[in-house]
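Worked example 3 (structure in, sequence out).
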């Protein structure tokens, strides 16, 4: 027998180099690369356990998970090795490849003890047991008891495949309808039993039973449901209840509904309201019938787990008119910022929509909903070029959330107004500003006052400025133009003790502070004491 894995050209090339298939080193290297080259080895080496194991496992060239592709090489092992019980069991265990057992000797394949052990290691191997074992109900039952996965391969003998009572017994253990005889695939009780365990077995039922409503509903409601409607009669593909039941499990069934249901907007609306993933499979002409109000209601009632799915699915597969509806798009973005990518080009250029998408996206990054590396491709990159280059728009979103500063163009990193908005919220964003701004005294002062660690990103020249040293800058109450100055209103001053003044002040947000200062203190002393108290 030949093999598509065997490359004679490779063999001849090595032989031309003076190599011999009787040379153990050469054969070991060859079977490591291609286990099927064992066929060319000498009789002696095909009886060498190490060489054969190398061939059936792929040697060091394959990961253990990939070794189940090499068992066929066992066909070329010597007769003695293929009749060696311990060696055969070892090969099956190592390769987990049923084809290895296919080439074991007839004696071994008829040995009940060996067969049970092999079935445990590789259930599919039971297909290659001797006919005597495969036709024995007692043995098949024992094998199924030994390994729960054997049942699906146990009906390999024609006499058992057509035994109705035994087939029903095996179906209860996990045997599929594909393993039974054609006669029993037309047996309603057998098909019902199989579809109750695994709905996808409907594809193996006879044509008449594919039109049996009870059988079809049983298949749909099964635990192992995977149910393409193309295996159901045309009449039942137009049955509203069946389509609803099936779509709840697998919305892809909507691709196969009959023509009479393809325009039923109320049916699709009900399905989509229960499973937003189904919107992808709603016909285009029906999507257009979904009113904006109806879609808005779907989004409004989305549960926490469905938020992202609802937002993305409804916009991604919406009509062009729906993707241009500002109210609908804003609602979708409110559930998940990634929905912004499916809005119309006009809304990508809308300041309100773009701002909402950016701020929502950054909130999702902070909450761990959106990966930081996905923010630009999913959200920011969809903003129109006009807005991404609009200073007023960028300044507004940076003021709302300084994290935007990390994603804007380098031109804005050199813009003092925008850079100040960023470092006032996060001083260490000073590392993102242009070199010229890191040498700007106002910029460094604002950054260091917000976070002393920002001083490390100042220019070397400004690091020598005594007033910018963190211990002084952090207590500097004087705001630069455009900055937020701390404001305190003195409400009352009274003598607390002979040398102490008790001062009551309120902040701009109406919070009260009580400060005690020496009687000879200046207004500057009071300001510094208030700043220290506020911190």
């Amino acid at each position: 027998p030949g093999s598509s894995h065997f490359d004679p050209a490779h063999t001849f090339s090595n032989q031309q180099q003076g190599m011999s298939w009787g040379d153990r080193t050469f054969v070991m290297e060859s079977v490591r690369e291609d286990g099927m080259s064992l066929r060319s080895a000498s009789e002696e080496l095909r009886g060498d356990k190490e060489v054969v194991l190398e061939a059936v496992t792929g040697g060091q060239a394959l990961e253990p998970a990939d070794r189940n592709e090499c068992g066929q090489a066992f066909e070329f092992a010597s007769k003695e090795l293929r009749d060696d019980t311990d060696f055969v069991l070892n090969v099956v265990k190592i390769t987990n490849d049923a084809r290895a057992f296919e080439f074991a000797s007839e004696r071994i394949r008829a040995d009940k003890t060996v067969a049970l052990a092999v079935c445990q290691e590789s259930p599919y191997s039971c297909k290659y047991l001797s006919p005597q074992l495969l036709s024995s109900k007692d043995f098949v039952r024992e094998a199924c008891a030994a390994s729960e996965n054997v049942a699906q391969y146990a009906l390999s003998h024609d006499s058992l495949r057509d035994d109705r009572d035994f087939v029903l017994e095996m179906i209860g253990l996990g045997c599929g309808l594909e393993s039974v005889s054609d006669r029993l695939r037309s047996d309603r009780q057998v098909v019902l039993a199989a579809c109750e365990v695994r709905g996808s077995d409907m594809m193996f039922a006879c044509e008449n039973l594919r039109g049996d409503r009870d059988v079809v509903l049983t298949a749909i409601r099964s635990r192992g449901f995977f149910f393409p409607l193309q295996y159901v009669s045309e009449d039942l593909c137009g049955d509203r209840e069946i389509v609803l039941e099936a779509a709840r499990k697998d919305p892809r069934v909507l691709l196969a509904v009959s023509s009479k249901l393809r325009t039923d907007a109320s049916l699709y609306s009900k399905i989509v309201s229960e499973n937003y993933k189904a919107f992808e499979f709603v016909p285009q002409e029906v999507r257009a019938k979904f009113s904006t109000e109806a879609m808005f209601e779907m989004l409004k009632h989305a549960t926490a787990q469905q938020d992202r799915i609802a937002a993305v699915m409804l916009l991604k597969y919406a009509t062009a008119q729906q993707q241009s509806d500002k109210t609908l798009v804003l609602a979708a973005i409110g559930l998940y910022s990634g929905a912004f990518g499916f809005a119309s080009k006009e809304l990508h250029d809308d300041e309100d929509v773009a701002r909402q998408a950016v701020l929502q996206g950054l909130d999702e990054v902070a909450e761990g909903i959106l990966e930081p590396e996905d923010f630009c491709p999913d959200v920011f990159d969809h903003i129109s070029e006009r807005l991404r280059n609009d200073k007023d728009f960028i300044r507004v979103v940076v003021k709302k959330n300084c994290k935007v500063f990390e994603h804007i163009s380098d031109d804005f990193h050199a813009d003092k107004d925008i850079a100040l908005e960023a470092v006032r919220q996060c001083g260490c964003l000073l590392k993102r500003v242009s070199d010229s701004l890191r040498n700007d005294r106002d910029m460094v002062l604002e950054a260091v006052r917000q976070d002393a660690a920002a001083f490390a990103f100042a220019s070397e020249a400004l690091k020598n400025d005594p007033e910018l040293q963190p211990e002084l800058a952090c207590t500097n109450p004087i705001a630069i133009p455009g900055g937020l100055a701390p404001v305190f209103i003195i409400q009352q001053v009274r003598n607390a003790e002979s040398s102490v003044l008790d001062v009551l002040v309120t902040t701009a947000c109406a919070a009260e502070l009580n400060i005690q200062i020496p009687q000879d203190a200046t207004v500057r002393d009071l300001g510094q004491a208030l700043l220290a108290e506020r911190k």
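Notes: The chain has a mean pLDDT of 85. The beta strands are 488-497, 500-507, 512-518.
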